[in-house]
Design a protein that fits this description.
- This protein has 375 residues and is of the alpha/beta class.
- The protein folds into two domains: 152 residues, 2-Layer Sandwich (VC0802-like), CATH 3.30.2130.30; 161 residues, 3-Layer(aba) Sandwich (Rossmann fold), CATH 3.40.50.150.
- The protein is built from ten helices and 15 strands.
- Helix 2 packs across helix 7.
- The longest helix is centred in the N-terminal third of the chain and has 20 residues.
- The radius of gyration is 23 Å and the shape is elongated.
- Bound molecules: S-adenosylmethionine (SAM).
- The site of S-adenosylmethionine has 22 residues, from helix 6 and strand 10.
């Protein structure tokens, strides 16, 4: 199979975690960069990346790089590419453009000229042209212009990889599935000890933990952009996917506990577990996290995303909650391992721990701190 250049994107701060995932899966020629990880490999590696990587957001295949000083350079660079392996003449596509420190400094204009270049490329050859669709396009094209160099790429993933396909319940502030996976990997959970999320909401961390421990690929619940491409070979892909599916240890016994103050979130977490094929694996309860019975000598992991403030005046309550969580864990959870994601640094400090490691991450547009430590 032919080799191509790929760039796997991830959320800011997650690059080293993604890089480690890719090393373990033996991706060829990996390089950790800002915003993601580069590798050089075959489309089979792209299949693997989409199916198996837990912290990746998109897997982009690079098609061309060239200098762009003006709109004509961009247009002719786009027209030169053979788009036919990725898009049919009657297909739909969408262009996502970004630009920094360049003469072409308007991303919408870049997207428009790229669309023109792709459409004219087809019109000349086939006398028909693909149309633009924002939703459910057959092909997503990424144009990245940085310091007057343009990189054109096609998105092998389609929908962002955080959309695993198992979620039926959102809840109030669900954390993204890819962030949950990053938190779990950073927590260094041994994938067999009990794991507790006392603020579990819709159960994202618990579902991702079960998939991780049972070695179930997160991409098995959905399809990907490359499956729409004319060059795609469905039969080899189906057998490749089956091999990945067979790696799952579906009966591995796990002890996963979740709690939330609100019954509707617990019901939602149950629905999410069901839809991910995890049945009644979780031991869920409605109640206050501060009453959770942490058993002595369990050596469990507490991995959780503590509440964020949404309304003015909530800060004091939140600070108190963090203080109370910190003192409860210190009193009752000796020997436990903690990975706690908090909305703000001062809340992290309010917990009153010493010797913790801090990782700065992002939950959507919010910057947050992940504290990891062994009690
Ligand atoms: C940031 S959300 C967690 C989101 C969750 N990780 C998810 O993916 O859906 C925090 C959750 O804590 C719950 N909560 C707030 N105070 C609580 C308390 N004292 N005890 C238990 N749960 C609480 C809220 O109902 C909310 O669902």
């Amino acid at each position: 199979m032919e080799r191509h250049e790929f760039f796997v994107t991830c959320a800011p701060g997650v690059e080293p975690v993604l890089f480690q995932e890719m090393k373990v899966l033996k991706f060829p020629k990996v390089e950790c960069q800002v915003g993601g990880v580069y590798f050089k490999g075959t489309m089979e590696h792209a299949w693997l990346a989409n199916l198996q990587l837990r912290t990746a957001i998109r897997v982009l295949r690079r098609l061309a790089r060239f200098e762009v000083m003006d709109a004509d350079d961009l247009y002719s660079g786009v027209r030169k590419v053979d788009w036919s392996p990725f898009l049919a003449g009657d297909g739909t596509f969408f262009v996502d453009a970004q630009t920094r420190e360049s003469a072409l400094d308007h991303s919408q204009f870049i997207a428009q000229r790229t669309k023109d270049g792709i459409a004219d490329n087809f019109r000349k050859r086939e006398r028909r042209r693909p149309s633009v669709a924002k939703e459910r396009a057959d092909l997503r094209v990424h144009v990245h212009v940085w310091r007057d160099r343009c990189t054109l790429a096609v998105d092998t993933s389609g929908d962002s990889l955080h959309k695993r396909g198992w979620r039926t319940y959102q809840g109030l502030a669900p954390m993204s599935e890819t962030l949950a996976a990053a938190v779990l990997l950073l927590s260094q959970w041994d994938r067999k000890s009990p794991l507790i999320d006392p603020f579990c909401g819709s159960g994202t961390l618990l579902v991702e933990a079960a998939l991780l421990a049972r070695n179930i690929a997160p991409g098995l619940f959905r399809s990907f952009g490359f499956q729409n491409w004319p060059e795609h070979r469905p039969y080899p892909y189906a057998s490749f996917r089956k091999k990945i599916q067979d790696l799952g240890d579906l009966n591995k016994k796990l002890f996963l506990f979740g709690r939330d103050l609100e019954k509707k979130h617990i019901t939602g977490a149950e629905a999410n577990a069901e839809s991910a094929g995890l049945g009644d694996l979780f031991q869920l309860s409605v109640g206050d996290a501060l009453d959770f019975p942490f058993k002595k000598g369990w050596g469990a992991w507490v991995v959780s995303n503590l509440p964020y403030g949404h309304r003015v005046g909530e800060d004091k309550d939140l600070e108190k909650l963090h203080r109370d969580v910190g003192s409860k864990l210190r009193q009752e959870a000796a020997g436990y391992h903690l990975a706690l994601l908090t909305g703000e640094r001062r809340f992290a400090h309010a917990m009153g721990f010493h010797d913790w490691q801090e990782h700065t991450l992002r939950n959507g547009s919010l910057q947050c701190s992940l504290l990891t430590l062994d009690l």
